Amino acid sequence: MNPPLLGQEMWALLADLYPICRSITGDGVRATLRRLQAHVPLTIHEVPTGTSVFDWSVPKEWNIRDAYVKDSRGTRVIDFRESNLHVISYSVPVRRRMALAELKGHLFTLPEHPDWIPNRTSYYDESWGFCLRHTRLLELEDGDYDVCIDSSLEDGNLTYGEYYVPGSSTDEVLFSAHVCHPSLANDNLSGIVVAAFLAKHLPPPPRRYSYRFLFAPATIGALTWLHFNESRLPRIRHGLVFTCLGDAGGHTYKQSRRGDAEIDRAVKVTLRDQGTPHRIVPFAPSGYDERQFCSPGFNLPVGCLMRSPQYPEYHTSADDLDLVQPQALGASLATCLEVIDVLEHDRRYMNQSPYGEPQLGRRGLYHLRERGGPTAAELLAIKWVLNLSDGKHSLLDIAERSGCQFRYVKTATAALVDSGLLKEA
Amino acid sequence: MNPPLLGQEMWALLADLYPICRSITGDGVRATLRRLQAHVPLTIHEVPTGTSVFDWSVPKEWNIRDAYVKDSRGTRVIDFRESNLHVISYSVPVRRRMALAELKGHLFTLPEHPDWIPNRTSYYDESWGFCLRHTRLLELEDGDYDVCIDSSLEDGNLTYGEYYVPGSSTDEVLFSAHVCHPSLANDNLSGIVVAAFLAKHLPPPPRRYSYRFLFAPATIGALTWLHFNESRLPRIRHGLVFTCLGDAGGHTYKQSRRGDAEIDRAVKVTLRDQGTPHRIVPFAPSGYDERQFCSPGFNLPVGCLMRSPQYPEYHTSADDLDLVQPQALGASLATCLEVIDVLEHDRRYMNQSPYGEPQLGRRGLYHLRERGGPTAAELLAIKWVLNLSDGKHSLLDIAERSGCQFRYVKTATAALVDSGLLKEA
Amino acid sequence: MNPPLLGQEMWALLADLYPICRSITGDGVRATLRRLQAHVPLTIHEVPTGTSVFDWSVPKEWNIRDAYVKDSRGTRVIDFRESNLHVISYSVPVRRRMALAELKGHLFTLPEHPDWIPNRTSYYDESWGFCLRHTRLLELEDGDYDVCIDSSLEDGNLTYGEYYVPGSSTDEVLFSAHVCHPSLANDNLSGIVVAAFLAKHLPPPPRRYSYRFLFAPATIGALTWLHFNESRLPRIRHGLVFTCLGDAGGHTYKQSRRGDAEIDRAVKVTLRDQGTPHRIVPFAPSGYDERQFCSPGFNLPVGCLMRSPQYPEYHTSADDLDLVQPQALGASLATCLEVIDVLEHDRRYMNQSPYGEPQLGRRGLYHLRERGGPTAAELLAIKWVLNLSDGKHSLLDIAERSGCQFRYVKTATAALVDSGLLKEA
Q: Where are the extended beta strands (E) located within C336-389?
């Protein structure tokens, strides 16, 4: 695992996916999942329009070929071919001439960021519209305009991808990224790319847990997956939603609704051990698909790993390839692998010599520092693991209480198991 | 409810009650309660001297007509008619001539505030004395003085008032104010006036709780009420002692002995939502009648709502009408009504669509902001109420955890009940 | 108890013990314990080499008569007679001539403190060596040196001392100090001296608890005592390890592994009441013999009372008589006695008049301040003790929750018991 090198590869995949016009259904999602199949053997599911999923039903499938607004000289003053953000996602087909006054009722801009195109959707309210730079809006002259949205909104399918890696047990770790955003780099694509590379670079077997990677459109996609997998949900022991993992900010971890789930504690210790600035924020029912996984009927132990959760470029054309850094993508992947390392190794052990300290010296565990043995940090971890391995404390508990880095707790545990002083509880 | 206007009315009542010479028994209490009857249909109880109440017994009744100290020229150098604080409450009758040296053993001043008359009592230790300005004491010349306290201390009654408003259940909310202080405006009268106006301005029925308002002398009055109502005490679900509610300071809430009772949390959220400076202080067995309600045998969930709990003018003649502001009285009343609003509405609900988020859009609950619907704060409250309405969280729990104002949690709940998404648990 | 005077006596004992060359076995320990017998009727135990104690066995006994390194002119350039720190403890006998280059492999200094001799041991790894000032090392010229360590390492005994003072119950308080350090004043001797004087100055009987004082070599001594007293361990209700109690720093208390044991809370309240700077630090499995007492198989409620836990002179010749102050020794003793006072008096009582406040005045408990009765602090403590004496709160609980000093809680309790208002639960 070479994070800088992988960061470059991740950025290349992200750049490859960037131009595709995705929405919650349609060929953009299919194209995205197919490209991911070059990296991960995804299973692709198609769920027909009208399928009931809890309180919702799968919507019509939306596809778009072209869209524009032409002025009286025939010039495309708004052109889908320039940016797929120009069209409101799920806009119904339109082919009309209208005066600027009427057209303006369908145009949306960001006056406070006049050079950015906003991103808008209208999934469940049939309408149409264009998003554009505010500077462009100001340039539009009175007169008639030809409006064309060459889209289709018809019965079809909702598409999602899934990759399941069986482990030693059927207990699962779920990683989920949404795949419904058009050309937005950090919110969406960074999460997809981190999930895909994590699937490619899982630690080698044997693995304690099975791993499931879900690439689905936000909300309706997550709900659809939950609907078809209700019987499997009790197996989900831990989970993370991935998004906004490519910007230059430090990590932000949003806790699961439970707040003290093992995943919450594992991420907290991982970020603590990294020693770099980060934020742990409590669950709130706004955000990404953790809203669905953490709804009260499911209440799954699923948090959300991000870097900057709020940034000015969010849901605008400025969330582009420049915002996303290879280094940040690689480091995000490394963080995920560290979290997995905690989850894989967080077990309880019993000190086999619990009355007083065992004699470390005659087992080569003490004073070894001077002879290339454990460092001071490892030696301290050895003492903590022995002291707290009473059947009540897991390695994560020990890392939390002792302040020792999890990696030292883990290597200390391995050394103690080798010496016979520790057995799994 | 117009707090500023009511504040003026409250101040007028307070000014009307101010001149009366009250003590823990006697005609001053009766006169006070009779004037309150113009606002609230109080029941007035008379409890005979000698009645046993727990560790105490009702004392003799004390009344006073006049009192003075005259110098050798016949001039009243201390005159009860000027201020009823001049006489120590419960002073026994005196009619003697004595030299200044002997008199001084019965004179009390505040050298650090030479222009203020202190307030003193001697309820359970038969004696007599005068309180006066230190400046006046310094003016007294050697010589003989005629001392007169035209009081009576005889078998009679202890008087208290009570007003009970039945609600949908016999579970009660108790509000209590002491009525035993003479001309002191903030400590005592402000609490009486807030309680009286709260009784007048309860929210319209149906009301979940029954409400009881108690106007009784401090300590012995509260104990007497507790004595005669022991069988009713299990009905008291919440309670507040009112005092010092008219000064310009922010609110101070002193928690019940339990510390985490619903009343403690309701007041805390109310003050948090007001967004103005305030203090929450833990219970201590000093203060007002919460000492009796929170004694270990009762341990009732009763806190104490104040503004400034300690102020230089406390128990002196400077605790006068100037210290009390109509605006503060009105705002204190508003606070009490907000606390009642929390108590009345703090119930548990069940999300009827707990698997994933329900589709708010088709119920007109989402994106309504742009069309005059819920504000962002209400929409967030809708999401929180849905997420936490799992039968374990009450609306107060939700307001606490989410940080949403209780009023938004309440209106969100109403909208969700209307839409069928929520039912009372 | 006169702490300043006792501090002088304690310092004198410490100075008397200072020159002895102690180790984990041998005549130095015996000489130390014999001198302590002049103060405390210690029982001295001898445990043979090879005795199994948990994961360890009692090592060979080490004694030393002389040691030196002589240069070619016959001058002792390193001389055990100057400081017993010059020889690594448990050095095997040596009598050889060798070149400086070879000798240097056995010489240890502190380059960062060139005038201090470090303290080193090699208990479980047969070797030999000398510690010296770095300045002296630099002076050594090339050439041959005569090396002599006139020590013995043979089957013998491990020696420890014990003093048991029976109380009203067989529940025990354990105080432990290690006795294995050579001429180091603060780390070791200060703890020994505080323990000895505490044994001499226990409060007069009747005492609720039995008290046990243990003077044993670190680690192996504590383990040996634990081994021979396993059946008695359930009697240990509270315990403290004493060390580093003579320097000028404020107290540091290291909590037991439990963290919330009564001893942890008693020491915390005692230090809080003293009102001087101090630190409470959590348990960690490094430090002194609390490591053994708090190993997971025992998990005894034993903390460690110190002053400065880390100081530059630690384990060097600079930890000498100048570092230890009579005043600090006396004040440490006073602290220990205050902790014992809390433990002896921490009981639960029942308020016999729990309905409302009892009438303090007629029992002479109220308003007494003005007449030489309780101070305001005692009066407040009276109210707290009454309020919380519901069978669930001990006096320590009350001191913690109320913030009242334990001594006021105690005297308030005594007054209330005298008045009949309180009975032991």
A: 348-351
Return per-residue pLDDT of chain C as tens, 425 residues. 677 789 999 999 999 999 999 999 999 999 999 999 999 999 999 999 999 999 999 999 999 999 999 999 999 999 999 999 999 999 999 999 999 999 999 999 999 999 999 999 999 889 999 999 999 999 999 999 999 999 999 999 999 999 999 999 999 999 999 999 999 999 989 999 999 999 999 999 999 999 999 999 999 999 999 999 999 999 999 999 999 999 999 999 999 999 999 999 999 999 999 999 999 999 999 999 999 999 999 999 999 999 999 999 999 999 999 999 999 999 999 999 999 999 999 999 999 999 999 999 888 886 544 445 567 888 999 999 999 999 999 999 999 999 999 999 999 999 999 999 999 99
Burial class (CB in 10 A: 0-12, 13-18, 19+), B267: buried
Helix (H, G, I), strand (E, B) or coil at A78: strand
B357/A226 touch (CB, cutoff 8 Å), yes or no? no
Helix, coil or strand: residue B421? coil
Q: Taking an 8 Å Cβ-Cβ cutoff, which residues of chain C contact chain A?
A: 53-56, 124-125, 219, 222-223, 226, 257, 284-286, 291-292, 294-299
| Cα B32 from Cα B47, distance rounded (Å) | 17
How is domain C61-154 classified at the architecture level of CATH?
3-Layer(bba) Sandwich (3.50)
A351 contacts C297? CB cut-off 8 A = yes
Give B290→chain C minimum CA distance, Å.
Answer: 10
Nearest CA distance, B115 vs chain C (angstrom): 24
Contact B356 A298 (CB under 8 A): yes
User: Cβ contact (<8 Å) for A386 and C296?
Assistant: yes
Every domain of chain B and the residues it spans: 3-59+157-345, 63-153, 348-424
DSSP string, C33-99: HHHHHTTS--EEEEEETT-EETTEE---EEEEEEEEEE-TTS-EEEETTT-GGGB-BTPPPEEEEEE
CATH match for A3-59+163-345 among 3.40.630.40, 3.40.630.10, 1.10.10.10, 3.20.20.70? 3.40.630.10
Q: Residue B50 burial by CB count (10 A; 0-12/13-18/19+): exposed, middle or buried?
A: exposed
C392 to chain B: closest CA residue: B296
Residues on chain A touching B358 (C-beta within 8 angstroms): 54-55
Question: Could you give phi then psi for residue C186, rounded to 5 degrees?
Answer: -80, -50
Q: What does residue C278 show for φ and ψ, rounded to 5 degrees?
A: -160, 170
Substitution target in A257, A295, A299, A302 with the highest count of B β-carbons within 10 Å is A295
Q: Do B257 and C353 touch (CB under 8 A)?
A: no
Closest chain B residue to C376, measured at CA = B286
Written as six digits, the tokens of C20 are: 């002895």
Which of B350, B357, B389 is the best residue to mutate to test the A interface, defined by the most A CB atoms within 10 Å of its own CB? Answer: B357
**Tokens at residue B161, please?**
């008032």
B348-424 folds as Arc Repressor Mutant, subunit A (1.10.10)
pTM of the shown model: 0.94
Instruction: Give the model confidence (pLDDT) of B344-397 as tens digits.
Output: 999 999 999 999 999 998 888 865 444 455 678 889 999 999 999 999 999 999
Class of the CATH-defined domain B63-153: alpha beta
DSSP conformation class of C329: H
The rounded distance, in Å, linking the Cα atoms of A77 and A145 is 9
Instruction: Judge: B354–A56 Cβ closer than 8 Å, yes or no.
Output: no
Q: pLDDT by residue (tens digit) across B200-226?
A: 999 999 999 999 999 999 999 999 999
CA dist., res. A35 & res. A25, Å (int) = 16
- How far, in Å, CA of B350 to CA of B299, rounded? 32
With contact defined as 3+ CB pairs under 8 Å, the chains touching C are: A, B
